[in-house]
Amino acid sequence: MSVINSMKLNIEAKSQNESFARSVIASFFVQINPTLEQIEDLKTAVSEAVTNCIVHAYGGSQSGAIDISCDLSENNIEIRITDYGKGIEDIGKAMQPFFTTGTEGERSGMGFTVMQAFCDKVNVTSQNGQTTVTLTKNI
Amino acid sequence: MELFIEFEGRKLVLRLVGELDEHSAEFVKRRLDAAISENNFDAVILELSRLTFMDSTGIGVIIGRYKLARKLNKSVYVRNPSQTVDKIFRMSGLYEIITKI
To answer: How large is the C-alpha radius of gyration of chain A?
Structure first.
């Protein structure tokens, strides 16, 4: 599928940037005429991935870079969300429902499960100090 | 994020307005815990008609408040979730512990 438009976004790992990130991506997604439900699904999945960067990769320090890049094709959007934090030791485990390494607060351990339920494809790579979550949402 | 605390008879109605995510979670937890601990009531209703967004951080927030209410022997219900919030409740299994009314 050929890419018809793309964009990049760099934000700091601050929780107030979560709503900003999901709104920007939703606005970009609108170009290929998704349904309202598809937009809401994508916003939720993006929020999960960005929360992971803030809470897990950067340990809630409220600093660190998050790079987001999006490619729009005629029938889908692909979003890559990258952090340079502590990485995911066991991706298979991290993706299991209710699994969390978060010891503070009340983490549900449902982040990746939500991403998988709300997107058509979720891919995770974590190596050499760089973790990238790739979300694909079809229309 | 805004929270409104209301009563319907002996029911404590907690109205969540805005977006429940990592950024608003601490505020919501604090306010809801205070409302649940400091009031006299028979049941809690989470009124979600104006909750426009919720992710899995919100699931944790809701479960935490559910546990607190149950510890006090109060029932917890949820009312009027939007389509998107309803989907989060359904897929996470929250409806197995909290009844939608």
So the answer is: 14
In this structure, how many other beta carbons lie within 10 angstroms of the beta carbon of residue B35? 18
Determine the Cα–Cα distance for residues A45 and A29; give it in Å rounded to an integer: 13
pTM of the model: 0.93
Q: Is residue B18 within 8 angstroms of chain A, CB to CB? A: no
Known active-site residue A22:
no
> Is A52 among the catalytic positions?
yes
Q: Is the C-alpha dihedral spanning A86, A91, A95, A100 positive or negative?
A: negative
Per-block mean pLDDT, blocks of 10 residues, chain A (139 long): 94 96 97 97 97 93 94 97 94 84 76 95 94 98
Contacts 24+ apart (CB under 8 A), A22-28: A22/A46, A22/A47, A22/A50, A22/B53, A25/A68, A25/A70, A25/A77, A25/A79, A28/A70, A28/A72, A28/A77
Q: What are phi and psi of B26, to 5 degrees?
A: -65, -45
Tell if the CB–CB gap between B92 and A114 is shorter than 8 Å. yes
CA–CA distance, A134 with A16 (Å, rounded to integer): 22
ipTM above 0.85, yes or no: yes
DSSP state of A54: I
